[in-house]
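User: I'm curious whether this sequence folds into something compact or stays loose and floppy. Could you predict its structure so I can see for myself?
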Amino acid sequence: MEYRQLGKTGLTVSEIGYGAWGIGASAWIGAREDESVTALHRAIELGVTFVDTARGYGESERIVGSVLRDHPDVLVATKVPPKNGIWPAPDGLHPDETFPGDHIRASLETSLAASGLEAFDVLQFHVWSDEWVGRGDWLETIADLRQEGKIRFFGVSINDYQPENALELVRSGTVDTVQVIDNAWHQQPEEHLLPACAEHGVGVIVRVGLDEGGLTGRITADSTFPEGDFRNRYFGGDRPAQVEQHVNALVADLGVGTDELPDLALRYVLDQPAVSTVIAGMRTVRNVERNAATSDGRRLTDTQRDVIRRHRWERNFYQAPDA
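Assistant: Here's the prediction. I'll summarize afterward.
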């Protein structure tokens, strides 16, 4: 496992982090707690030192805490949901509607109780709007929580496919980390956000590096998902067929088998020097071992990098197919 600096926090994190959304069983259907715990233990054995969870991930915080209480060297980040319950944050809201100080504190206390941890290394807002910079009492509350030792650093999870909607925050110097979607298809963060984070020493946590499974090569026109699984919406309509077509074109141009795509897709994210870690959802030991193996110090060739960049495919599958 290779390691990187988390911005200017002074923390070192594994290039491959553990994304703990799926193990909470609130949107990804089929997770078994015993299997999730085994997978998380295996990730730690293989050198993973950063775990990302959230108050809104079902049982995730509890499961993560049950493991990490015995591994104080592993860093853990969680998220505060917006008080109004709206994802992503629309324009025109005041931060008093989304992240007032009392809500932030109450959410954190609930997360600490659920996880059994004494503090979180990073506390993130689960949505963000640059309209909130310099407004509301959220920054004062964050400062108080840090002073009390309940959190070490502060970050935000940027709205889906809106990487420019945190540039003002990054430049303000009031944030330690940002979490953003970045992958072989969604390359927009490379244009402005990643350079800004590098300039201002903000750590970058990449989510959806495998496009919720679209870049694994296992989504085909015939793919189906369990009832209640969020992927029924994400891959709704003819989207699985679209994904299959794009995957086939990409692997053909790369000259590789479909089974090699996840590794190359993660390497593409790690090819960005501003990226601190990419959090992969790993509910099984098999996926942990495959993803952890990507962090071996090797990088893409210039040809591979150029081919992937030519296959940029910007779209928003979090919106309903008919949106």
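Summary: The chain is about 35% helix and 15% strand. The mean pLDDT is 97.
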